[in-house]
Specification:
The chain has 187 residues and is of the alpha/beta class. 34% of the residues lie in helices and 26% in strands.
Length: 187
Amino acid sequence: MSNLTNKRVAILATNGFEQSELTGPRDALKQAGLKVDIVSLAPGAIRGWQKKDWGDTVDVDVTIDEAKVENYCALVLPGGQINPDILRTDERAVRFVRQFFDAKKPIGAICHGPWMLVEADVVRGRTVTSWPSVKTDLKNAGAKWVDQEVVVDQGLVTSRKPDDIPAFSSKLIEEISEGKHEERAAA
C-alpha cells in the first residue's frame, strides 16, 4: 500500500444521506490516514437519515461550487433515498461525478448512491451492485447488475447496503492505496 497521508477524498452528500453510509466510510478513510471533505450543495450542515427518522448533522467542508476534482484522489457517494435523488437533479453535482470518472479516479457508491452514476452516464458496460430497487435503473443505463457485498470494476466500487460498509470501505481504500487510478490515468 502506498502512503495515504496528505491524500484527500470527497464525500458528496446532501440532506437525507443514510447516516451510516456517510459516517462509516468517512471514519474508515480517516483511520487509513486520508483526509476527508464533505462536499454539498450549500455551506453549513447537512442532516442524515437514521433508518426511519432524521439523524445527526454533519458539517459541510466545501460547497460543490468550490470543490475541484484535482484536489481529491477519490469520491464517495453515500446512499439513502433522499440524498441521491436530490443530488441527481443538480447539474453541478452530476458534473462533479462525471469529472471523477473522466479523470479515472476511484468512485465508491453504496445503496442508492449509484443513482448518481446513472445520472452521470458512467455505468455503461460496468459491473455494479446497489440497493435492489436501483437495479433496473442501473441495467437500463447499460450496467451489469449483480447481487454481491462489494463489486470493483476499474476503480468503480459499489455495495448494496449498510451491512456492506466494512467491505465497501476496505475495497475503496485498496483502490486508492494501490494507485490503480494513477496507472489508468497515465495509460
